[in-house]
Please model this.
Amino acid sequence: MTVPLQPPRRLLEITVDGEAVRVPEGSTILDACTATGTGVPTLCYGDTLTPKNACRVCVVEVEGSRTLVPACSRKAEAGMVVGTSTERAEHSRKVVLELLASSVDLSTTPRAAEWIEEYGARPERFGPDAATVEQPVKVDNDLYVRDYNKCILCYKCVDACGDQWQNSFAIAVAGRGFDATISTEHDAPLTDSACVYCGNCVEVCPTGALSFKSEFDMRTAGTWNEAEQTRTTTICSYCGVGCNLTLHVQENRIVKVTSPHDNPVTHGNLCIKGRFGFQHVQNVASDG
Amino acid sequence: MKRKRAEHYDRLTHPLVRENGELRRATWEEALGRAAEGFRRNIQAHGPDAFAMLSCARSTNEMNYVGQKFTRVVIGTNNVDSCNRTCHAPSVAGLSAAFGSGGGTSSYQEVEEADVIVMWGSAARNAHPIFFQHVLKGIRKGARMFAVDPRRTGTAEWADRWLGLNVGTDIPLAHAVAREIIHSGLHNQVFIERATEGFEEYAASVEPWTLTVAEQVTGVPAEAIRELAHAYARADRAQLCWTLGITEHHNATDNVRALINLSLLTGHVGRYGSGLSPLRGQNNVQGGGDMGAIPNRLPGFQDILDPEIRARFEQAWDVPIQPRYGLNLTEMLEAMAEGEVTTCYLIGENPVQSEADSLNCVKRLSMLDHLVVQDIFLTKTAQMADVVLPAAAAWCESDGTFTNSERRVQRVRKALEAPGEARDDIWILCELARRLGHDWDYDGSEQVWDELRAVSPAHKGMTYQRLTDLQGIQWPCPSEDALEPPFLHGRLWDPDPAKRGRLAPFAVLRHSPPVDLLDEEYPLRLTTGRRLDSYNTGVQSSGFASPLRRGENIELSPEDAARLGVTAGEEVRISSRRGSVVAPVHIDPALRPGLVFMTMHFPDEVDTNALTIEATCPIAGTAEFKAAAVRVDRLVPAKAG
Model:
């Protein structure tokens, strides 16, 4: 008896910015770009999730295509000619960044500032009265915080909580248009919702709208220092499933826990104990 | 609903020794000296078998290897065991009796690709949430899932069919499934003939268990039993998963064998996608046994009674190894009561709160002449010790490996410095060995691991580098150049009888209902288990502020609550034939009338194990945590009229 092998995958050749690249059938344009080392910005793309095509920041130009296409979801086809930095693609990316940055707080979105500069985006051009999603931060439990000032409505948290991973369905999109928000049922506090505090939404959030309470408190106090943090992957100390935890440690204290997305046990997912149940090791009496 | 936050434990940051009945701070030198001296005194007076070690299923493989070596080499006894005894020892015993190896036979990935998944006595949705994500993937791909559980658990909510059996009737249900399969001609005759033995006797033994009889005994409708039987037998790939609902019974090994029988009957073992998966409850309970921290096996799960294997270890360690099994945890506790075990080295375990019939356990530990506890907290057990040694938390303050439920050995890495004077387990063991005449010194965990690899064929090919590169490797891994399939016992399907090896025996089993009988005085069946956000005796999980935590409750069906005239939140007295506790009522419509549920997470507030019965499985020694007879009384008598 042997293990069934995956069917062999043909290689396709496509052209990215004039460079020929061969990728396995089923790969996306983004995969091809990664293979050639071509940087394409992404926000709503998640390596463990089905693409939602929400943010449009990864759009590229494909020869023969009427519209720009999202690189993260569009499958590569043989002979495809892709331009990642054509004038049209870059202009679109610039406007997307301007619209997002004028209405949403991108201050904790990794690389956002860099992209804004790279594409010459001017979020301030909509003036001081531009509509924003500004609202109070939701702090309703001791484990994680929801700051929807920073939410770009990428839906990754909804998918992680829903049928793609956690299957708890504690959150969904409520409202329409600019008033759409990610919400629990009837906008109840998490403590009255179906939330089981696995934090798998925090794991996939691209902007820091969802964050550990420990991170939120440290940022508020001005003590959060990512440059000083170490990241060490170890194994959870609770049940026997063997989930891989990456411990983010600052000044000998665990400040946040993530899980490797390519791990065969977790695929980046944890439960409440693995994600938040670390405090016992750092409960040390002050006179200790 | 009352929201309760249990008192958390603070880390131990320096050694403690007992003086005039009180524990006081000590230096490492003094504490290690006292610990070693006590061991020496007892061994000199009563021989090495007066010593017992409880090794830590929470610590690394490397620590467990050194711990069992300490027991066998420094002390000279096989009295080493761990809390595997309170959970999955019956799984190990049952699987090794059938297949010669005690591990689960499948991988998580295979669950995703099964057609039928049976979750038997397993609240995995809450107790093993990330395993259950693999089950959910399978369900999303079209697998049918059957949940067999007295409670309608979170797992059952995702099932095609929930088979709510009476507590302790697993064997009748399994037998009825088997009989239905045989009578429908759905058994795998080719596999049975080629790979198993004892089918005729087995078939005869299940013959009385018609669907009707089984329905009467188990409470599961005949039609549901029939449906499970047909679905399981007809599946191309079927996974049979179980947890403590199977193993925490007085006849637990028989329960496990009853499930294994079903896999043999249908050929659902030894193939990709088909197999048996006991879900282990602790991060390294699989590894602890694999490392030989059990009384009947040497590292690599090799039998102590085999003279050739013993000879290999005697050569490697340069000491004679006793040619007999040591005492298991259950027997150790009995031997303490008899005065045969007089000293105990207890690493990272909290039997005072985790054992069934906890009051009895306290009594036995207090009879010891010398108790050394090594832990990260001053647990209730540590408070009884003569010497307390503060340890590093293995999972984040040590380097090493853990082995998970799918036999995957994965690297554990040090991310934090241990607080105060707390030290690594292996350092402590070596310091004690040195004081007892063995000059041990390991230069890090990798050196221990390489020593283990040299004596355990199943781990030989797992270098630290490979474990890192491949994100863990499942045993067996005999070669550094190759990987074995992710499932075990493919040999059973080999056309060549020589390669097929030892045939897998069917077990002929008898139904034996729970020991603690229900009667008019104790009419309710108490079963215990875990909640999503908490863990075992709560020593770890009380440390974080879970919004889900509501403290200990007695969970009652709405029917029983109405009959008793109690309301949610009301404190009631719960009594068994052994003890009595007070806890608030929680009403759970997922419970059937007559069945009540408690956890063991808050023993400092409500000592649930004062109620449970220490009726143990004669083969594996696991106690019947899942079936106590209790009564529930109102604290304030209801006013007449």
